[in-house]
Amino acid sequence: MIIRRAVLPPKILNGRFSLAIPTILQPLTSSISSTATPPLCHSIARSVPNVNRRTFTAAVCLRRDPKKFGKKNALSKDGEEKPNATDPNDLEVLKAELAEAMKSFKAKLGQLRPDGRLSPEALEVMRVRSPGMQLRDAPQLGDLCTIVSKGRTFEILAYNQNDVKNISKLLQSTAHSLTPKVNPDNTNPNRIVVDIPPATAASRTRVVEEAHQLGNEVNRAITLARANQQKRHRAMRLNHTARPDDINKGMFTTNDLTKAANEEAKKITEEFKKVVLWQ
Q1: What are the residue boundaries of the Ribosome recycling factor domain, all occurrences included (predicted)?
Q2: Is 80 exceeded by the pLDDT of residue 1?
């Protein structure tokens, strides 16, 4: 026995082909569709209550970490103003160090006489060392006596007679070929007379060498100030307390300031050497 499958003619619904359902089965399909269980998503949506939603009306207030960023222009224990740890363009400490180095350099250079002769200022900074005393603890000659220049001689008046012997030893040990005379006229035992030697080619050469040494000292001081500022910039970069562009800008400014200070010191030293050699 051969069973043939009934082929239903296609029917067009909303522009699509579908199989036509016989009229006998239509009531059955309508009852099934009416009693079918609703989808799961619909039941979940009906079970979840409506939640009121609101948007942010203001941003959250952000605060800086004081341990990471620190305070601006904080004061040290001594009451001095510390360098700003978050501003790489704050170079006040560097400028102060450079100004102090140049001030000390000019003061020491001013104590040298272009003619090669000894000046009272050069004698006042010499240290008078007593037996058993270290050089760093010894007082300066200007603290123990008064030095007066009279023509080609220096007249030294000691405050204490016990220091006369140590002062005489100091003057004899210098490289200026000094010959001190203690109380030459027997009027004051605290009086020392020193003849100033005339200027020679050797004395002028010695002055040039001393000026060159002072130039090297100020260059080392400028280099040290630059290194200290670079350490502060590196700390800002490692701690992420400033932007890299600002740090690079501060480093460029640091290089410009130190370069200008080196050029100024070199110019002053060369001009002083020319004056000494042209005497």
Answers
A1: 106-276
A2: no
